[in-house]
Amino acid sequence: MRDLSRRDLLKATAVGAGAVALPGMMVGGSSAFATDGPGPSGATYPPAKLTGRIVRPQSPDYAEASLGWDELFVRYPLVIVFAQETQDVVNALTWARQHDVALRVRSGRHSLEGWSNVDNGIVIDVSELKDVHIDTATRTAKVGAGLNQLEAVTALGEYDLAATTGTEGTVGLSGATLGGGFGFLTRYLGMACDNLIGAEIVVASGVNGAKVLEVDPWNHPDLLWALRGAGNGNFGIVTSLTYKVAPLKSVAYLQATWSGLDDLHGVFDTWQRTAPFTDPRLGSQLEVHPTEILLFAVLAEGSETEARRLLEPILSIGKPEVTVQIGGWGETYAGFQIPNDEEPAKWKFFSQFTREPFPTKAISAIREFMENAPSPDSNFFTQAFGSGAQRQEPFGGAAFPHRDALFYSEPGAGWGTRGEPDSDDAVTPIAQTWIAEFSQALRPYVDGAYVNVPNIGMAEWEKAYWGHNFTRLRKIKAKYDPHNVFQYEQSVPPATS
Ligand SMILES: Cc1cc2nc3c(=O)[nH]c(=O)nc-3n(C[C@H](O)[C@H](O)[C@H](O)COP(=O)(O)OP(=O)(O)OC[C@H]3O[C@@H](n4cnc5c(N)ncnc54)[C@H](O)[C@@H]3O)c2cc1C
């Protein structure tokens, strides 16, 4: 593992500040190394060939290779490249630029607007980059960008180590981390992106090429800052991620269920006034479903008694059914996963952060919308933030801005059957309308949105995702992707001056 010491900084600076040129990559230009940007702007590169596992429309596995987790979005890319090594990504990006083909980056396929795929373009898929190097002495882990969250949690769990991830195991570690990444460990260890201390990234270079940059707190620190919360498909293709990891031997996992919504006011109000301010080892999510309320909580290094005590104000409301398990984080995380094929095919969400407790009116609105939900798989999801570790920015800072949120929340609806593209089509407009009206009803009580759960059609989405960090993001974009090679519906545009 690399030791991110001052000495390494000096060594790295002597040879070019962390830029790595792969053999035979470039002709023209004065140097393959860059000290402060993506490379000599006038360089041209020899014609590139696609390498890796290539899937084209004629391939029998094209439909499966193209399909995302949210089957609401169906795209028909020209070609999908499943990279087997970093050079495949370099070749694919160079090829896309030389053929003027739209490109998208993909890892775990969970983009909630289908933005990791594109009609008539190239999908550069890193999901088969699955190397794992864990250094228990320095408590760092360098992993391929293709790991999903379950694979990452499991690999770390074998050493009683952990970093923050989101809750659903099949979500890509890359996509979650680069947009922020919160879950049960956020109040204990910060955002996933706060745990990120380095990355290997393939960026556009020169007129028509690509190159690899090694990014860490000393090499391209501005890019590391940007990757911590705005890295999704904006600056380049991340091929590996380095995390600082923390010891975590055991957790108490508590689940409580209230039948019906009659206790909603008491449960929600008590949760929002206590869970964000409790012991930072305790992370919790409250989910309101059409016919029940669910509380999920994880207490890091805690006992059942402690978990019950910390949650007592909430658990004392009504008569919830409560279960508690004690175990390693890896096995606990694996245990609460729902297999993808048991989930609805199509989904719609709307993300929002909240800084003040919801008033009674807002909780009444949640109840009313949930009682008129478009499908049984609709829910109102929340994640406690408050006084947890996410308040503290990591060394070098992060583009993720919502550190003082009380909680995150999202109305969500799921419908349709996986593998049956037309199933429940009639529900689609009803679910879309429900989400739009639900989020509108809560608009007076929320402030900010989460780029990993993008809000389509939202005015000033840039500010909602990144607040005042957006101006700096545009400057960093202009430095590393001046030609705006990485662009999609809500990508960061380069600064113009
Ligand atoms: C069921 C479900 C549960 C979720 N739960 C949580 C949660 O608990 N906490 C949380 O924080 N979020 C959660 N999310 C949101 C999740 O973090 C985002 O959907 C995430 O962006 C998905 O990443 P992915 O790699 O799976 O998706 P992809 O579709 O592969 O990519 C998503 C975005 O990231 C970009 N991207 C992917 N890989 C790279 C890369 N290597 N380099 C550069 N850009 C890349 C893509 O271009 C795209 O813009 C959830 C989403 C779903 C669908």
UniProtKB/TrEMBL annotation:
GO terms for molecular function: FAD binding; oxidoreductase activity. Its cofactor is FAD. It comes from the Bacteria. InterPro entries: BBE, FAD-bd_PCMH, FAD-bd_PCMH-like_sf, FAD-bd_PCMH_sub1, FAD-bd_PCMH_sub2, FAD-linked_Oxidoreductase, Oxid_FAD_bind_N, TAT_signal. Keywords: FAD, Flavoprotein, Oxidoreductase. Residues 73-248 form the FAD-binding PCMH-type domain. Belongs to the oxygen-dependent FAD-linked oxidoreductase family. This is FAD-binding oxidoreductase. It comes from Micromonospora orduensis.
